């Protein structure tokens, strides 16, 4: 499912324009206070919420939460995907959208479409008429995982060209079959772009590595940020790659909430393994930029398995501030001995379930989420680390519990 260009504009990306506006507002507050003018037409053209009604939701979706997509990362996706149970009729569905104030959408909000084989292209136009954004909306079947051993080899990546901008950075995906891809991997590259508009793709924190352990790998580098991030005391950006999504609108405001960890998973993972190389940067620095003498940066690689709903059925997502501490975590596989090495080094760690039992009924209904996280600086989420720290990773493997099928009882 190809992802079309996002914002359509002749003066740069909408996100870059927002950043410039924030700086301008900070400098002109006193002038605005003395001006009394009519509110200008809104320049926003985002989908803030999307939902689909099903007459029999329990027969169509794994969870009622699947019928509504509403989170802070939604406005930064050009592809909106609803996931339904296999054999769900997708021929006459009518998605509804909440738009930013004054925006309009074509085809019409709530119009009926056939999502059986195709995505539907929607165009959102801003109230002031100067902005447009294209979205593709898809309704796909979420099938159960059939493999007990799952490989992530990082061979599938692409260069994302930011619409109407010279900026571009790398993204990673997995192939569901020969033609359909799934964008389950995320990084902080989109946030790095906000203060480093002129950075070349290979200057971003997360990039492909041509000489991986086998084929391509991923190179994560802790980079110095640009002037905008420096001004708000976010002086470095650790290279990171994780299962989940990234919300660049929060990158400068609440970075820990910009990372949304995990994908829904219906197998119990038992072991997490892979390959890495690591070289720490020369000088470890605190968030204020002061050098910490004698402290060496370290990288991080781990996997987390957690329940994705609470007791009331409300959705649960883990962020940068609770990905290893949330009470909804049931299992962890943390690589604790990432030593500096120039050679590819294998790691293998079993999941620690801390005596917690898995609800297999809930597991079958995709009631658990799997997060895999790696970073060139373990404290990078708090903007601490050493510029130049480099973690290379490749060939991640999850070994899951083999499904036990009850055998019929034989009587004689």
Give an account of the 3D structure.
- With 412 residues, the chain is mainly β.
- The chain is 10% helix and 34% strand.
- The strands form 8 sheets. Strands 14, 19, 20, 21, 24, 25 and 27 form a 7-stranded antiparallel beta sheet that branches. Strands 9, 15, 16, 22, 26 and 29 form a 6-stranded antiparallel beta sheet that branches. Strands 1, 4, 6, 7 and 8 form a 5-stranded mixed beta sheet that branches.
- The N terminus and C terminus are likely disordered.
User: What characterizes the major β-sheet?
Assistant: 7 strands, antiparallel
Low-confidence stretches: 1-13, 19-37, 405-412
Shape: globular
Q: So how many helices?
A: 5
Q: How many strand segments?
A: 29
Helix coverage percent of residues? under 10%
Span between N and C termini? 55 Å
Average pLDDT taken over every residue = 86
Which structural class should the secondary elements be placed in?
A: mainly beta
Radius of gyration: 23 Å
Beta-strand fraction estimate: 25-35%
């Amino acid at each position: 499912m190809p992802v079309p260009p996002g914002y359509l504009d002749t003066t740069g990306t909408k996100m870059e324009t927002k950043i410039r506006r924030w700086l301008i507002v900070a400098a002109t507050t006193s002038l605005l206070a003395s001006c009394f003018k009519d509110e200008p037409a809104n320049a926003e053209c985002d989908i803030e919420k999307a939902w689909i009604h099903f007459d029999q939701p329990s027969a169509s979706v794994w969870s009622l939460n699947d019928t509504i997509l509403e989170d802070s990362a939604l406005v930064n996706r050009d592809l909106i995907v609803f996931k339904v149970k296999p054999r769900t009729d997708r021929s006459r569905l009518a998605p509804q959208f909440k738009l930013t104030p004054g925006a309009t959408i074509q085809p019409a909000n709530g119009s009926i479409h056939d999502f059986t084989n195709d995505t539907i292209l929607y165009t959102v136009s801003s109230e002031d008429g100067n902005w447009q954004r294209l979205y593709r909306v898809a309704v796909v079947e979420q099938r159960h995982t059939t493999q007990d051993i799952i490989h992530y080899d990082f061979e599938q990546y692409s260069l994302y060209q930011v619409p109407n901008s010279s900026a571009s950075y790398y993204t990673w995906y997995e192939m569901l079959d020969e033609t359909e891809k799934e964008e389950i991997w995320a990084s902080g590259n989109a946030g790095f772009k906000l203060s480093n508009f002129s950075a070349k793709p290979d200057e971003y924190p997360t990039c492909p590595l041509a000489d991986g352990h086998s084929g391509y790998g991923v190179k994560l580098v802790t980079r110095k940020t640009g002037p905008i991030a420096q001004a708000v005391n976010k002086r470095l950006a650790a290279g990171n790659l994780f299962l989940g999504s990234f919300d660049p609108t929060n990158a400068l405001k609440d970075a820990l909430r910009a990372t949304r960890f995990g994908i829904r998973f219906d197998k119990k993972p038992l072991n997490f393994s892979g390959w890495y190389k690591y070289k720490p940067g020369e000088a470890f620095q605190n968030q204020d930029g002061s050098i910490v003498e004698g402290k060496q940066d370290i990288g991080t690689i781990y996997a987390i398995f957690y329940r994705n709903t609470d007791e009331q059925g409300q959705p649960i997502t883990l962020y940068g501030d609770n990905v290893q501490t949330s009470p909804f975590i049931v299992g962890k596989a943390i690589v604790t001995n990432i030593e500096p090495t120039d050679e590819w080094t294998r790691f293998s760690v079993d999941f620690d379930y801390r005596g917690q039992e898995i609800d297999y009924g809930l597991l079958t209904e995709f009631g658990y989420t799997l997060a895999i996280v790696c970073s060139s600086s373990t404290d990078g989420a708090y903007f601490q680390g050493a510029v130049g720290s480099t973690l290379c990773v490749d060939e991640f493997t999850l070994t899951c519990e083999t499904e036990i099928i009850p055998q019929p009882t034989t009587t004689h």
